[in-house]
Design goal:
Elements: H1 2-28, E1 35-43, H2 48-55, H3 63-75, E2 84-88, H4 105-122, E3 133-140, E4 152-154, E5 159-165, H5 171-185, E6 219-220, E7 226-229, E8 232-234, E9 242-243, H6 246-251
Parallel strand pairs: 1-2, 1-3, 3-5, 6-9
Antiparallel strand pairs: 4-5, 7-8
């Protein structure tokens, strides 16, 4: 009897969590109210340069993300003036859980649960009101000999981990990556090749009907790069040169 009660309670909790997650995700893409997105800086490499950069961060440095999303959602017919409202949180001094060295289904599921728990607990002291989406930006001092780890956006839990450079000249590209990972939390999928990082047409190209097709003028945000040729692309310097393509718009419920 006791075992049956425990199982019933566990099933009820799982059902409650599943329904709560579904309702949160549905509300996040109904575009009826602003989504509150909070950005938490992290010193990823422990350098003095990253520390100074984080100390000088201001909310205005992320305004381009709000502007981009307002422009693009309006282009698809949304009348919401500020679909996203950015907040800047205090520095987080703990690093997020590391991805498994050999990612398999169970290990990825376990890591996802750890990530969601970590994101909620590490921000608890500064979040009187929980944001809709949490984005942790791990800043590294610029070093062109080092390749940053991949950034990640999770729809379940609505959490993003962004790896960026602690440099004024990289603010624009950092915001491009933040916007990309934010859209992952809403259900948007990648539209670039995992082999070489180039956007995959037609959905990963901003203007697939452009003639000639190359070079493109903009990046499709989930394609991640401006396609200069079939085998050449570059990350846009800012969100002024990014667009939300038709498939991405459909994935985040901007279109029917």
């Amino acid at each position: 009897m006791f075992k049956a009660v425990r199982i019933s309670i566990l099933l009820f909790i799982l059902f409650f969590v599943a329904v709560s997650t579904w309702l949160t995700q549905a509300r996040s893409t109904d575009w009826n109210n602003s989504l509150w997105v909070k950005i938490y800086p992290i010193n990823a490499d422990g350098s003095a340069e990253s520390t100074r950069y984080i100390e000088d961060l201001e909310l205005r440095h992320f305004e381009g993300i709000e502007t981009f999303l307002a422009r693009e959602t309006e282009r698809y017919g949304s009348t919401l003036q500020r679909p996203v409202r950015i907040e800047l949180g205090s520095q987080v001094h703990e690093q997020p859980p590391e991805l498994p060295v050999e990612p398999k289904l169970l290990s990825i599921m376990g890591w996802s649960l750890k990530m969601r728990w970590w994101a909620a607990t590490v921000t608890d002291s500064q979040d009187d009101i929980e944001p809709d989406v949490r984005i942790f930006v791990r800043y590294h001092q610029p070093d062109f000999g080092i390749t940053l780890e991949n950034s990640i956006g999770l729809q379940k839990g609505m959490v993003g981990i962004v790896n960026g450079y602690a440099s004024r000249r990289h603010r624009g590209t950092n915001n491009v990556i933040i916007a990309h990972e934010f859209l992952h939390t809403l259900g948007a999928t990648d539209k670039y090749s995992p082999l070489n990082g180039h956007p995959v047409g037609p959905d990963g190209i901003a203007e697939p009907d452009r003639k000639p097709l190359y070079p493109q003028r903009f990046a499709e945000i989930m394609g991640g790069r401006i396609a200069l040729a079939e085998d050449d692309s570059e990350i846009p310097s800012s969100l002024k040169y990014a667009m939300i393509g038709a498939l991405t718009a459909s994935e985040i419920n901007l279109t029917d």
